[in-house]
Structure formats: structure tokens, C-alpha cells
Amino acid sequence: MTEQHAVAHRICPLCEASCGLVIEREGQQVTRIRGDEADVFSAGFLCPKAVSLKELHDDGDRLRSPLVKRDGRFVAVSWDEAYAEIERRLPPIIAAHGADAVATVLGNPVAHKMSLMLYFPRLARALGTRNMYSASSVDQVPKMLSVGLMFGNWMTVPVPDIDRSDYLLVLGANPMVSNGSMWTVPDYRGKAKALRARGGKIVVVDPRRTETAQAADAHHFIRPGGDVFFLLGLAHTLFEENLVRLGRLAPHVAGLDALQAAVQPYPPERMAARCGVPADVMRTLARELAGARRGAIYGRIGTCTQQYGTLASWLIDAINVLTGHLDAAGGAMFPKAAAFAANTRGKPGTGRGVVMGRYRSRVAGAPEVMGELPVTCLAEEIDTPGPGQVRALIAIAGNPVLSAPNGARLAAALEQLDFMVSLDIYLNETSRHADVILPGVSPLEDAHFDVSFGQLSHRNHARYSAPVLARADGQPDEWESLLRLAAIVKGMGRNADLDAWDTALLEEEVQKSAGPATPHVMAALAPRRGVERMLDLALRSGPYGDQFGAQPDGLTLAKVQAAPSGIDLGPMQARIPEVLRTPSGKIELAPAVLLADLARVAEALGAPDEAPTLVIIGRRQLRSNNSWMHNLPVLAKGPYRCTALVHPGDAARLGLADGGRAQIRNGARMVEAQVELSEEMMPGVVSLPHGWGHDLPGTQLGVAAERPGANLNALLDEQLRDPLSGNAVLSGIAIEMRPC
């Protein structure tokens, strides 16, 4: 191998599957990307997104230097000039209006960036603002809230142990496309095929016969937003037919009688009309799940993005408990991450639990969850005058103008800000409103460790990626960008000694746990700096770590770096009661706040069922999970994908033609989309993918603009939320359609 030719390993950062890649390069040019067959987690699997990493790195539209807006136009400047502009304009806003005058908003790519995940908390603490928002509240907060209430931590999420399962009931999820969502499972297709080959069964319940459903043993349509009625019918059946089997969990469960009483009014025969699933099907599925030797029910984004999102998320895990499938091999189990998992730290089996609603948003009164407010509240917090009004925004790797409901209002609000900073790789629909844009680094220039997805992985492992390509001269690492912003906010100035401050901050954190051993720990971490030092600390003090010499065979960052295809830490193991962090030390099967929210279900059942004749849902697509992927030619090519899927019967009734264009309306909100007739749709349901709408002025996304598509979120009401979690309601929205 010549000095110019080199082979590197990289964890793919483009979706949750986190596949291991082998990347070949000549000098600074990538020549080939393929799956790493030796990878301990993905075993060579990869999807079309992985090969687009080269196009992402080479994309002429990707920002390489900071931009400052002058006289309404962006001008390329040096990093020092960009930080000087931030230092000139941001601190005076905080001084005049207080910490809450600054908001932050994080996008989905943050979860795939170790630097951003680990150093945003530094910036957040420096700001001290309550106005923090993220893409989580258009995606997953209901699940995180429900598991927090049940198990004591926001990230204690049980995931299907698919490699050992023989029955999987999938609700509102499409892992064939996503390869898991809040369930990191590369090559779901292969694992599902193996499950069925060993005599297992997969059943999908979804308003669309998805790719996952087409490869399953059975599929049943369900009314969008009807999941809570379906799940209550299942839970009722388990109690009524004496199918509850807690097994070894019995001593570790609190609230069984309260749950039984709560679901008693909801038999399948009463639920069927509201969810669209026949009562006999519900009873059969409950019996199959209860009778499976190793099985689980798994629900995802369709169960979260609705008005009963938290209730549905709770009932899924409650049903896994009732059937004896929680924390059991082949059921829904708890990963044990090598680093950063709160449920591996502190005293095992008990804790403080979670607290929500510590404060509320200024305008709508939406509750705080996990230190965040719903992103659908951001626009009103900016455009509503009064004490506490948001006047400045720091946006990090996010595009809420496209990804959140009523982006038009948010776009108008962003123009009213006194100051906005965006850390992003593109001049997109959101960053176009910024006064300063700090370009993020290419994933190929970045070190990586899966901070979040190790906590959601179907098999335990530890993998690290070193940068594949060198960064341009002067380009800071993203952790350095965030820390410099924090220094500016703290009054230390843009020229603060970041290394000295970072060391002081880390030493302060180590002191809390290591006490007198702090000097020994800090010496062991030297000479690493920044994000890699933080990772080494987490690995060494984690559940598999060397404990700084006390466990010589344990993990260190050096050991993980020496294994380019990762270190296998084995299948998931039973973790109850050790994993629990509830004050009672038990699984809270019937949290009071969730039982109280069932009153909304009772109220709905007591009212006439005024079901709309036509509703809309979103959908995931393999080549466009996020809006910025539409600017990569290898993913954008092929058939046009931003189509509205319509059942042929609905199309005939509405006069819609395959390939024709239609207006889709929700009151005064309207988009136009291309129609695609599809038998896979439930009659009365239309599906339009999210993340499109690249026809707004002021962006620099040349490929995406060629096929802009229609923005589903432009139809949605930003005031419509799950009241417990604050998550946006994106599914089951009543619409009207007619030919253009």
C-alpha cells in the first residue's frame, strides 16, 4: 500500500443503523466506500446512503468558511471575524434582556456527531436559558417520557432482541427502511428473514402496507392516531383472558392492580371502531404475543407523533411486561452501553427518577420535558412581545423551517430576531435567516463514537472512528466551536484559552465522582484533549472499563482505537432490577400522570366518532431520511419520491389521476403534490414524505432545488401537541384533496 493510498474505517453517520464502513482513499480523495464485513455490529451491511458520504464531502454547496450577513447578503469571512461578530452582538442581548432571551434549537444530525452531543451541554450551561428546543419533539419525546416514568431514565429504552426472538409485533414503524428507530438494528431485513426462517412470525399494524409489512407474515390496517385504542384493547384482553405472566419480573413491578383497573373499561369490542382493527384481530394478536416463547411488541414514530403519543408509548412497554417479554431473551431488552449511559452509573436498582414540567413555555404554557420545550413553541416565543421574549437564536445542525409544523410562521419569526447564529454544513431553509453561519466539519473529517445509539443497539459493542480526511487549515473541531461560543457567552472573550478552560471544567466534573483520585484520573487521561479525552473517561469508568487500572482487562479508548472494526460486548442480558432508576426501585407500571391522561381517551369514546373522510400521514424513505440528503446526487437520482400515495378508491372518488398533481388542504394551509396511486394505503389515508419543500428563496442547495417537492409540515398546525410530552401531532390530520 502506497503512502497516498490508504484504507480507513468509519461508522456511517447518516441514519441510526450506524453501519461500519471501509473507506479507501488516494491522498485526500475518497475512491471507494464499502461495508466492513469484519464490523462486529453491522457485519458488512450498508444501504445506499453510505456511499453518499463522498458526495457530501465533495458537495460544492457544503459550506467551508464562516459567513456573516452584511447588508442582507452573506459574505465569507475568517473564523476570527465570525467570532468577533458573535462577541459584538450576542452578549449585549443577554445583558439587556436576560438569559431566556436566547434560545437554542438542535437538529437530528446532532445525534450523529460526538462533538455536538458531548459539548452542547457546555454551551447550554453557559447560556442558562430555559428556551431550549430540538427535533426530539417532532419525533421521540413521548417514548423518552414514558420510559423515564416507568424505568427512571429518559434513555432506558427497551429494544427488541430480534436475534433471539420468534414473534415480533410492529406498530407504526418501518424498520425495513429505517433499520430501526430508537432501536439500532442494521440489516433489519436479514434479521427478520432469519427470524421467520426459524419458525418465527412478524405482524405489522400500520395505516400503510409498508416495506416492513410486505415482508411480514401478516399486516393489519389501523386508523392513524388510533394506536392507544388498539393497545388498550390488547391490554384489556391480557387481563380478561388471564394471559398476564409477569414471571421473574413480579417482585420488581409496582402498579399492576392500578393498570388492570385502568384498562378495564376498554375491551376490544369497544375499541375496534376507533382504531379500525377488528376486535377478533386484537384478541388474536394479544393471545399470540402472550403465547410466544420469545416475543415483543415494538412501536415507533407513528405511535409518537400523535395526540396520544405518550399513552401509546407507555402501553407498548406495559404490554411487554404483562406478557413476560420485558427483560427476557428474545423479548424487549435493555442495552448496556459501553459509555455515557446514565443507567450504568450511580447506585444500581434505584434513583431519583425523572421530573417533568419544572417550568412551562411563556406563551402556550407547554411543559418542559428533559430540559426542553416543544419546538412547535419556538415561533410564538419569538414573535409574541413581552418579558422573556426570545430575541436571539443559536441553531445547531437543524432545519426546523422544513422539519417542524407551520414553517412559514417560524421563517417569519426568525426574520424578527435581533441576532441568529447557525452551526451548519449548508445554507438551507433555516440557516438562511442567520446573521453568522459557522460551518460544521464533514463527517469524513470528524472523529466519532455513537454516544446515543450504543444505548439503543440490539447488541452491545464499542466502536470508534478516527477522522478519515484532514480538516482544512483553520477549521476548528465542532467541540471547539461550541466551547468558544460558551466562552463568549461567559464573558471570557473569543480568544479564551479553550484547552485550559476545558481541562478545568472536566476536572470539576471528575472531582464529583473520583474525589481524592481526581489527580490520578486526570493524569491517566492526558495527553488527550477535548472530545476524545471525554470519551476515554466515559469508556474507562463505564461498565466494561478498566476503572483506571482496577480492571486491567477493561476498556480504554486506546483499546477501542486498536480494534478498527469494533469490540463485541455480547448480546443483551437481563438487567432488571439493576437498570432501574426509579425512587421505588421497581418498574412503575401505572404512573399517575399517565392514568390521569386516560381521561382524554374516555372523553373521546363518549363523544360521537366524527372521523374525517381523508387524513394524511408522513413516511420514511431509504434515500431521504433527512432534508439535507436531498442535495446529494446519488440519493436524489431515480424515481421522483415526494409523491402523495393515495388508495385507488379514494383517487376515483376525488377525481385524482396517477402522476397528476393535486392540491392538499388543511383549512387555509395548502400544498401541491404529485399523486401516486397505491393499494398499500388504507382507504381514507394519504401519505406524503417529510423533509421536502426546497423552493424557498435564499438557500444554496442546487440539487435539492431541482426537485423541491412538497412540504408536509406546511399543512400542520403547530398548536396541536400531545399534552403530556409536547410532541407535535404529525399524523392523522384531516385534509381535503382535489386535482390541480
From TrEMBL:
<dbReference type="Pfam" id="PF01568">
    <property type="entry name" value="Molydop_binding"/>
</dbReference>
<keyword id="KW-0560">Oxidoreductase</keyword>
<keyword id="KW-0411">Iron-sulfur</keyword>
<dbReference type="GO" id="GO:0043546">
    <property type="term" value="F:molybdopterin cofactor binding"/>
</dbReference>
<dbReference type="InterPro" id="IPR006656">
    <property type="entry name" value="Mopterin_OxRdtase"/>
</dbReference>
<dbReference type="InterPro" id="IPR009010">
    <property type="entry name" value="Asp_de-COase-like_dom_sf"/>
</dbReference>
<keyword id="KW-0004">4Fe-4S</keyword>
<dbReference type="GO" id="GO:0016491">
    <property type="term" value="F:oxidoreductase activity"/>
</dbReference>
<dbReference type="GO" id="GO:0046872">
    <property type="term" value="F:metal ion binding"/>
</dbReference>
<dbReference type="GO" id="GO:0051539">
    <property type="term" value="F:4 iron, 4 sulfur cluster binding"/>
</dbReference>
<dbReference type="InterPro" id="IPR006963">
    <property type="entry name" value="Mopterin_OxRdtase_4Fe-4S_dom"/>
</dbReference>
<dbReference type="GO" id="GO:1990204">
    <property type="term" value="C:oxidoreductase complex"/>
</dbReference>
<keyword id="KW-0408">Iron</keyword>
<dbReference type="GO" id="GO:0045333">
    <property type="term" value="P:cellular respiration"/>
</dbReference>
<dbReference type="Pfam" id="PF04879">
    <property type="entry name" value="Molybdop_Fe4S4"/>
</dbReference>
<keyword id="KW-0479">Metal-binding</keyword>
<dbReference type="GO" id="GO:0016020">
    <property type="term" value="C:membrane"/>
</dbReference>
<feature type="domain" description="4Fe-4S Mo/W bis-MGD-type">
    <location>
        <begin position="5"/>
        <end position="61"/>
    </location>
</feature>
<dbReference type="Pfam" id="PF00384">
    <property type="entry name" value="Molybdopterin"/>
</dbReference>
<protein>
    <submittedName>
        <fullName>Molybdopterin-dependent oxidoreductase</fullName>
    </submittedName>
</protein>
<dbReference type="InterPro" id="IPR050123">
    <property type="entry name" value="Prok_molybdopt-oxidoreductase"/>
</dbReference>
<dbReference type="InterPro" id="IPR006657">
    <property type="entry name" value="MoPterin_dinucl-bd_dom"/>
</dbReference>
